Amino acid sequence: MATPLPDGVTARRREAALAGHRGDEAGARQALGDAAAAVRATALGALARTGRLDLTDVTAAMDDPEPEVRARAAELAAFVGPTAVAVGLRALADRDPRVVEAGCFALGEIGPSAVTAVGALAGVGRDHPDPLCREAAVAALGAIGDPAGLPAILAATSDKPAVRRRAVLALAPFDGPEVDAALERALSDRDWQVRQAAEDLGDGRSQRD
User: Fold this and answer.
1) Contact predicate 154/182, CB 8 Å
2) How far, in Å, CA of 105 to CA of 74, rounded?
3) Cβ distance 96 to 119 under 8 Å?
4) Phi-psi label, residue 23: left if phi above 0, alpha if psi -120 to 50, beta otherwise
5) pLDDT in tens, 53-102
6) For 188-200, how does the pLDDT look when each residue is reduced to its tens digit (9 = 90+)?
7) Which CATH code for domain 54-208?
8) Is 56 helix (H, G, I), strand (E, B) or coil?
9) Could you tell me where in the chain the CATH 1.25.10.10 domains are found?
10) Is residue 186 classed as helix, strand or coil in its secondary structure?
11) What pTM was computed for the model?
């Protein structure tokens, strides 16, 4: 269970969020310097809501000492777009799994323009100790769809159930005998969600063909 925020922090966080809804860029930027990490993280989202969050903002927030803020900055790199691929890459090397997972999400949202991150994502997908990070990395590799990411996706089809399911879905952009073999194995996976994902993907391929 999350620890409740002190009343003063809760009020300032609410004001930061309202700044986003009001289109108050100045108010949101002021909250970026708040003493509380929760307020700073909320301020980043408020800036995104105003449409004024930029590469400088998310890059600077990656230097924040609190992982809550770094994770929000990494996630919002997706909002900034392809120019923020470097922010996503930096997140992949963070010591906190929440930041790594957020960076994977952003790179996947950026999509094919994040092709330079494929090697780092593959490393996370294969080796990160946190299964949520491996799952997020595999999803990002599927969203990017570059062939260089396929070996890591195939390897992930032998990971934990949630990662296997995500890996099956990530095979959607790819073709070839090794992909077909992985899907065939997934059809008899001991986890029903993995089997369902393989069936759904197989049905989609049949309709496409």
Assistant:
1) yes
2) 8
3) no
4) left
5) 999 999 999 999 999 999 999 999 999 999 999 999 999 999 999 999 99
6) 999 999 999 999 9
7) 1.25.10.10
8) helix
9) 54-208
10) helix
11) 0.92
